[in-house]
Amino acid sequence: MAKQKKNRTLDALASLCKRRGFIFQSSEIYGGINGFWDYGPLGVELKRNIKEAWWKDVVQANENIVGLDCSIIMHPRVWEASGHVGGFSDPMVDCRACKKRYKADNLCEDQGTELIEADGTFELPEGIKCTACGSNDLTEPRSFDLMFKTFVGPVEEDSATAYLRPETAQGIFAQFSNVLSTARQKLPFGIAQIGKAFRNEINPRNYTFRSREFEQMELEFFIEPGTDAEWHAHWITERLKWYESIGLPAESLHQDIHPEHKLAHYASACTDIAYDFPFGVQELEGIAARGNFDLSRHAEFSGKSMDYFDQEANKRFIPHVVEPSAGVDRIALAVLCNAYREEWIPKGGGEVIQGEIGKRAPEGYEMRTVMRFAPRVAPIKVAVFPLLKNKPELVNKAREVFDSLQRCWPCAYDQVGAIGRRYRRQDEVGTPFCVTIDFDSLEDECVTLRHRDSMTQERIAISDLIATLHGQLA
Ligand code: ATP
Questions:
Q1: CA-204 nearest atom, ligand 1
Q2: Ranges of the chain whose pLDDT falls below 50
Q3: CB 283 less than 6 A from any atom of ligand 1
Q4: Would you say the pTM of this structure is higher than 0.90?
Q5: Range of the structural domain that residue 424 is part of
Q6: Are residues 267 and 415 in the same domain?
């Protein structure tokens, strides 16, 4: 029953995302391709807002954090040094009866248990069954390489093999010395990057949550050895605050602290920030204290120094790093899930009820679908309507207001249908404000400003509109 409800929420959201142009299946006209997604006109704005909010708060607001934009394909030795070649794999399990393939740890988790791991080999606990057909005829867990391979140059031979990066972080480590010598930074300082990453996931699922092509926002924050715990705690606090700033409520965010026996041998701590998705509490971002593992490995494999020279202390060492690593698409999905509401509005006025998703509104109520995006991430900030489309004086005035607002924010102009229906269209895409120009506006230079969440309306002078909206959208 709970599962059905969860599926209903995700199905309803996916349907809205397709209908209103947030997310489409990649290559849909050819039947789609599993694990790949396209963002439509509104989705692309939503994602850009998330990336811009991160860049602004993580990079631009901190004078000791600088940006970087590395190539997706790098020298193959990068991935040997990082441990990805030969080491970046997931255990998978096949159902012999129906041929469905699973990520072994997910299959166990879904059935309330854990994959057994001993000395680098994996085993399924007793009683695990195929979720799709119920059979217990499953293969032993086998390693599955997650790296996407390609060839550089005209000849497809082994020496030309390269990889699509499975994370953006290694570009930062590989360019550490260049950034250090050009950005004139002292420890502690960070290098940040946003970009695409690729993983040939065994079982892409939960809509866009686990995709094969996705975007990451990663910060490598370089610190003095011994300060790891302090900076790790600092970044957990900062990142939790940031998630709230884009509208995810504190109570929907969780910290998953990795127990010591599950940490990589070089890491001293790792905490995931997870969100309460309709399909369970799942990771949005991992924050790891990785010691000096990455820089040391690149120093070893490249033969180039990755040292930092501390002039005051007159000592040379390889810095440690704390890495907050987030996925843009997962955050976008969390923002979409959090925003989606089906509300039941009493026809004669009165209190609005939060409806049950997928259920019809009771007698005497009408349903509205609304995306309650935080203004910061809403794809469209303001919509402008002339009351009637066949009155040139109203249309001209509305276009004038629209032009002035569009210089400040992404806006929509709509003159089709009754005003109520135009409000509903904007509610469905999460536009926080609508502005209506009516006959009175021509006389008094005022408009009706309508608020998405409360559905209240107020009369406001056109000359005050930009300042008021600036205040409310901030
Ligand atoms: P998971 O355990 O869910 O596979 P991970 O721990 O392997 O994730 P990291 O390697 O820590 O993930 O990557 C950092 C972030 O990149 C994740 O927190 C997530 O937001 C994002 N990410 C990783 N893999 C995917 C994917 N297949 N699809 C979408 N986002 C992803």
A1: 27
A2: 1
A3: yes
A4: yes
A5: 380-473
A6: no
